[in-house]
Amino acid sequence: MKPLTFSVLRLLSDEEFHSGEEMARLLDVSRTGIWQALQDLDESGLSLQRIRGRGYRLPQGIQWLNRERILSAIGANANRIDLMLADSVESTNSMLLQNTALGAPHGACLASELQTRGRGRRGRSWHTGLGGGLAFSLLWRFNQGVASLSGLSLAAGVAVARALREAGVSDVSLKWPNDVLHRHHKLAGILIELQGDMLGPSAAVIGIGLNLKLSDRTRSAIDQAVTDVHSVCKTPPDRNLLQGRLLAHLIEVLDLFSESGFSALREEWRQLHAYHGKTVRLLQPNGPVIEGRIVDVSDDGSLLLDSGSGPRHIASGEISLRGAA
Ligand code: BTN
Question: Cα–Cα distance between 44 and 57 in angstroms, integer?
Answer without folding.
Answer: 15
